[in-house]
Amino acid sequence: MRRLLPAATGRPVRRAAPAPATGGRTFHLPDLGEGLADAEVLEWKVSVGDTVAHDQVVVEVETAKSVVTLPSPFAGTVTRLHCGAGEVVAVGAPLLTVSDSVCDDGSGAVLTGYGTSGTRRTVTMPSGRPAGTGPGDAGGVGHTARDPGAAPAGGTPASRPGTRVPLDATAEKYLRGHRETPAVTIWADTDATALLAARASLGTGLLPLLAQACLTGLAAFPELNARVDTDRGEIVRLPQVHLGFAVQTDRGLVVPVVRDADRLSPEDLAAELRSLTGLARRGALPAHQRTGGTFTLNNYGVLGVDGATPLLNHPQAAMLGVGRITDRPWAVQGRLETRKVVHLSLTFDHRVCDGGTAAGFLRHVVEQVTGFTPSVPCGSPPAIRGDEAAGRAPQ
Question: Hey, which residues are catalytic here?
């Protein structure tokens, strides 16, 4: 696996050579999701002179969070490999060139969820990178930490500079969304006693049940399954739900994406969540299941956190956060009882909807969580539209 080591050893930086002027087509390292800036080439599956078909796997790369195989978007004869195994390549840098004489347009899709860029960037060969800190840190973004230098002669420990660690690319992605988006967070405490009973009866985890609650909420309030096209000044409401969900791994926070989650049965949804969680923790998550999410579910309760104000996963317009479930006093039909209570937080882009619509979605999820029964994975109470929800704020 890729080692995360201090990056102050000064290994040289090699510029990515431009593609040869032969009229061939060059495949550049695509954006692999999570805001990651580079990847290490582990193994080439082809050599110069080989003939490749479109969508044929040509190289295996490793990011700070997973190992990914990349298929060629072109067919033809390989005329050049722009980097060798062990080199760290920036997103947008050339990987290989295929001759025009045999190439065709292929399938037109390298991997669902990302595309290639014509921009050529730096190919670096660092000896390693500094380990990051915090649950969302991937441990390096392809930048070299500035050498703090030695302490001045006679200096005291207090005068020595601290260790410099590059900003994590994933964190930068979330911060960008935070800076550019008028995000609002609303929350509600919810009786989750029935949810836990349903989990025990159905033999499933909490995540599939919470995911189903989100999916029925998005069906009732599709305004939240959207993104903002700032270039055209438009809101793009998306016809499909690609559900992202946060997974804590040894390499930091990873957000796998269940594609077309709204079309899956409860059983298939639970199976896909289990499969992607396992892949994420093994560092083997495919690239097309790391990108393209339209809504994110973040169960930070597994970290022992009661509540939070989630940052949006740019360019998504909404995220539901779920805190830990605790025993708390709760009024039930006029009587005070000890119930299992969970704190739900919805962060949303105020440009895509007003507060009434967001409150309606959150109230829908609250009613789903409260109304789970052991025999029904996810109930379907009447949806509350935004104008109705405005007078029924969660208590």
Answer: 350, 354
* CATH classification at residue 345: 3.30.559.10
Q: What range does the domain containing 98 cover?
A: 13-124
pLDDT of residue 249: 87
Q: Which residue, of 63, 90, 124, is where some domain finishes?
A: 124
Domain boundary among 124, 151, 182: 124
What residues of the chain score a pLDDT lower than 70?
Answer: 1-23, 33-36, 64-65, 100-159, 167-174, 176-177, 373-395
Q: Compute the C-alpha angle 109/279/318, nearest 5°.
A: 70
How many domains, in total, are found in the chain? 2
Contact 237, 223 (CB under 8 A): yes
Q: What pLDDT, in 10s, does the model give residues 98-112?
A: 986 544 444 443 343
DSSP 255-270: --EETTGGGS-HHHHH
Domain-embedded: residue 141: no
d(Cα 395, Cα 388) in Å, to the nearest integer? 15
